[in-house]
Amino acid sequence: MAWNWQQPDWPNFAWDRSQISAAEEQFLLGGGIAIGTMKHLDEDNRDQFLVELLSGEAVTTSAIEGEILNRASVQSSILRQLGLGSPDLRRFMPAEQDIAEMMVDLDRSFSQPLSNETLFGWHRMVTSGRKDLADIGRFRTSSEPMQIVSGRIGAPKVYFEAPPSKRVPAEMKGFISWFNRAAPNGKDPLPAITCAGIAHLYFESIHPFEDGNGRIGRAIAEKAMTHSFGQPVLVSLATNDPGAPKKLLRGPRKGKSTK
């Protein structure tokens, strides 16, 4: 069986634009309404709304991967990293602090091009403290195949196998180049939902990391949608039904420390 990355036209994705155009229009319309709504909120309410969004997405994207986090602790960690309110002296679990750090970084770096350094930083954040991983903050290097399997030991069913580790650096170079070209100010811009959908499928097909690909893949899709608005945006991909993402945007904060 040949996987998608083994096809002769990989990674030239094709799609029916007529099937997506209505969703693209609805997304942009909803985003415009959300931007207008946010302008009528005072600074404290906007900040609280941001914390709720970031913490909700952090908790849910981790739950998809089987990691249950304490929402209050995640919110406290986000508040501390945003410089909002009094420092919280509670002890955070590494997983809570690290996913919070990634969500805040995603929000702050929305306009920056994607790079290996960004992805390696996110990977260190979501795998900090893991003792079972050989490759943290870098692409996987194991010679063992990266597979999605189920079934009993000795008779597994392989649903997908990603490219071997030796191909990952070149595949990711191509992915990052494509992603930055597909941005609104890139050489080959794509509409928000189209770009996010392709980016997620493309990245997950490569599966470049030993673990954490799901959380990072959803962050990449969020970043793709953010590009279309020119300001921080969280679509809450993990929290909402795939067919009806919630448009959640905010403008720049004023008068608050971001250290």
Describe the structure.
By secondary structure, the chain is mainly alpha-helical. The protein is 50% helix and 5% strand. The strands form 2 sheets. Strands 1-2 form a two-stranded antiparallel sheet. The protein has a two-stranded antiparallel ribbon with strand order 3-4. Helix 2 packs across helix 4. It is globular. The chain starts with 16 loop residues before the first helix and ends in a 10-residue tail after the last strand.
Question: Short summary of the structure?
Answer:
The chain is mainly alpha-helical and 259 residues long. Helix content is 50%, strand content 5%. It is built from eight helices and four strands; from the N terminus they run H-H-H-H-H-E-E-H-H-H-E-E.
Write out key terms for the chains shown:
two-stranded antiparallel sheet, disordered C terminus, globular, 4 strands, 259 residues, 8 helices, mainly alpha
What is the overall silhouette?
A: globular
- Category by helix and strand content: mainly alpha
SS element count, helices:
8
Helix content bin:
40-55%
Count of strand segments: 4
Task: Give the terminus-to-terminus CA distance.
Answer: 51 Å
Strand content: 5-15%
- Rounded mean pLDDT is 81
Unreliable stretches (pLDDT < 50, length at least 5) are 241-259
Helix and strand sequence: HHHHHEEHHHEE
What is the rounded Rg? 19 Å
- What order do the strands of the largest sheet run in, or round the barrel if closed? 1-2
Largest sheet geometry: 2 strands, antiparallel
